[in-house]
Amino acid sequence: MSILVIAEHNNLDLHKPTLNTVTAALALGDDVDILVAGANCGKVAEQAAQIAKIRKVLLADHAAYEHQLAENVAKLIATVGKSYSHILAPAGTQGKNTLPRVAALLDVDQLSDVIRIDSPDTFARPIYAGNAIATVQSSAAIKVMTIRATNFDAVATNGNAPIETLDDTFSTSNATFIKEEIAESDRPELTVADVVISGGRGMASGENFEMLYTLADKLNAAVGASRAAVDAGFVPNDMQVGQTGKIVAPNLYIAVGISGAIQHLAGMKDSKVIVAINKDEEAPIFQVADYGLVADLFEVVPQLENLV
Amino acid sequence: MKVLVAVKRVIDYNVKVRVKPDHSDVDLNNVKMAINPFCEIAVEEAVRLKEKGVASEIIVVSIGPKEAQEQIRTALALGADRGLLIQTEEMPSSLGVAKLLKAVVDEEQPQLIILGKQSIDTDNNQTGQMLAALTDYPQGAFASSVEVEGDHINVAREIDGGLQTLKLSLPAVITADLRLNEPRYASLPNIMKAKRKPLDTKTPADLGVTLNNTLKTVKVEPPAERQAGIKVASVEELVDKLKNEAKVI
Ligand SMILES: Cc1cc2nc3c(=O)[nH]c(=O)nc-3n(C[C@H](O)[C@H](O)[C@H](O)COP(=O)(O)OP(=O)(O)OC[C@H]3O[C@@H](n4cnc5c(N)ncnc54)[C@H](O)[C@@H]3O)c2cc1C
Minimal CB count within 10 Å: which of A14, A269, B38, B99? Predict the structure, then answer.
């Protein structure tokens, strides 16, 4: 068993879901290597080298990998990965964009969003927006899978693994990067925050989200949203929690003006404690909430902010 | 420009699926089926490209049982020109679907292929990227806006941090995210017209594709159910519970 974990990063920082993915990898076997593909990403390789219990870091540092273009990165991963038994990546948009392409290049079936590892060939994953959990056995020659970070602990970072440089470059001319609009925020990242406050259609406008930001800053929380709030243009797309948005599992999730559609629940129902604030006592969100407050959010959110 | 759109027949998104008592699978007996919401968005985008004069013909293909003809008809009613059903009783893996689509691409030579980013049954989010690998075409996955300009397409993609824009040369593969567009409702006259549009049926063997699914479902279980908690009467009580009972703030 030898496992290749694809690091998720932005050329400066290693993203935390990589650490959770390494824990999943260590459940498969002891020989875990990390591939850092990017441009001017030596710092990321150094951070990856500190991950405990890994064998080595493979660094592919080239302009072709700067923006994680799937066309280039997938060829690299398939080339490097073909001598491994498993190839894993965090189930963020980078992993979801690239790994299926890797699997097809290697002519193997892929598994998405693995939440549990039973053995080196048997895994569990949610289907139907998390309304069912499938246990799947794979006889693929190489098991290519994305890992849902919220279901695995982060591995320690007190290691000191060697860094090996790779020279393989794959560069396509049929896809070019134009631009990236990345939301800047001082608040914790949605997927790793201990507290998440999400607003829905009930917020009624983007301006009203200020209330949630103020509350969030008091609780050191991240702010999320339902699809309805994103579709209405209240907040940007990267804040969407749910089946097709981000998956979060914080200690505390506060849903404000969110009805609790199954697609939204799929992204947050593994949270430890759920609070729902909704003026409709019949709202389905109350069926999963530990503490429900039937009230007008415009009245109680400012009160909450004063009391915490 | 020819556009190929792939659509899947899935459980209607409003239906909460149940697991069979023997844990062999989910129970789809007598359950309302529909076109996968993301596939519907893909069809809508193709139709808009046709209305703009960018697309000349829209071919819609589905892989699945005979009944998937219904979903192809839905797509035809939305504005696609002709349909192709690749009939299989057993649903192939995403890679199997991508191989079948690759065979259709080889035959039809579309300049643009649009798929939904994921189907709401398996939640795989794989097929488009796999098809892109098999055809060696560039990919624009999780697209929230697209713009065709001459021999290339600009795609804004929804990524974890925000939006990324890529320029892809055609032919290319696009997968639709939720905000790419809001699909129209098919009008009655168009539903009637769709009944007369050509709909071809083939088998994987006709396309020369052998399917080999290496993923075996061992069991399907319901998720751990969350118990509904309590209702608090005031913000004070809520804060007290969070501090002293749940100890999360
Ligand atoms: C394919 C597909 C994928 C999807 N993916 C996602 C996803 O990833 N994430 C997601 O969230 N959704 C997703 N959805 C959408 C989902 O089905 C729901 O439409 C959406 O979650 C509803 O958002 P909401 O709860 O904010 O809005 P609504 O359902 O409109 O609920 C608003 C709530 O606010 C309450 N409210 C209004 N005003 C106040 C007030 N003043 N005070 C207190 N409460 C108030 C109302 O009582 C109501 O319960 C998806 C749908 C589809 C079809």
Answer: A269
Reported ipTM: 0.96
A141 and A242: one domain? no
Chain A CA closest to residue B229:
A290
Residue A29 forms part of a structural domain? yes
Does A134 contact B at CB distance below 8 Å? Answer: yes
Is there a contact between A291 and B232 if contact means CB atoms under 8 Å apart? yes
Structure confidence by residue, pLDDT tens digits, B1-48: 999 999 999 999 999 899 999 999 999 999 999 999 999 999 999 999
* CB contacts, 8 Å: A178 with chain B: 154, 165-167
Claim to verify: residue A64 and residue A154 sit in the same structural domain: yes
Question: How many domains does one find in chain A?
Answer: 2
CATH code, A75: 3.40.50.620
Q: From the candidates A290, A294, A299, which should be mutated to test the interface with B, based on the most B CB atoms within 10 A?
A: A290
3-state secondary structure (DSSP) of residue A176 = strand
Closest to A228 (Cα-Cα) out of A200, A196, A267: A200
Q: How many CA atoms lie within 13 A of A261 on its CB side?
A: 17
**Tokens at A10, concatenated:** 């932005």
Q: Are residues A204 and A136 in the same domain?
A: no
State which of A148, A165, A182 marks the end of a domain.
A165
Total-model pTM: 0.97
Chain B: residue whose CA lies nearest to A238: B162
Give the distance (Å) from ligand 1 centre to CA of residue A127. 21
Strand runs labelled E in B76-183? 82-87, 112-116, 139-149, 152-159, 162-169, 172-176
